[in-house]
Specification:
This protein has about 140 residues and is mainly beta. The strands form 3 sheets. Strands 3-4-5-6 form a 4-stranded antiparallel beta sheet. The chain is globular.
Length: about 140
């Protein structure tokens, strides 16, 4: 279906091919979700830079890159201070910096889109990362 007039054109998008890979939504509040589309994945997250409002951002991940991203995030040999810079589709970038809190090393993930707006993916446990990436 396509509706149009002189001012705008509206086209219905078919989302029947979108598959939810994993989702983190404690107490009903969405923190992150990964969806598989035909030829890429989209990770949508609640930006950790905002405490009082829900600000959602997203980035595309190539079909062949999703497992590599998971391996970087869950690197068992990661040390405090290890830093990775990852170029994504659509000129987005991720910077992953490993830190330590409460005796656990975790990745802090910063996302910058093509026009320079930064977001911070919430901190998750290894179990939550596995759930998000469909590795349960």
């Amino acid at each position: 279906m396509s509706i149009g007039n002189a001012q705008m054109k509206v086209t219905k998008i078919d989302n029947s091919n979108v598959i939810e890979v994993g989702k983190i939504s404690p107490m009903g509040t969405l923190h992150a979700v990964i969806e598989k589309h035909n030829d890429f994945y989209i990770l949508t997250y609640n930006d950790g830079n905002y405490k009082e409002i829900d600000e959602y951002k997203s980035f595309k991940i190539g079909l062949n890159d999703i497992d590599n991203l998971y391996l970087v995030i869950n690197n068992p040999e990661a040390k405090v201070g290890d830093t990775y810079h990852i170029e994504l589709l659509d000129k987005n970038t991720l910077t992953i910096i490993f830190s330590k809190a409460l005796g656990t090393i975790y990745p802090a993930i910063y996302h910058k889109n093509k026009i320079g707006i930064e977001g911070r993916v919430p901190h998750f446990t290894k179990k939550q990362w596995a759930k998000l990436f469909g590795k349960k």
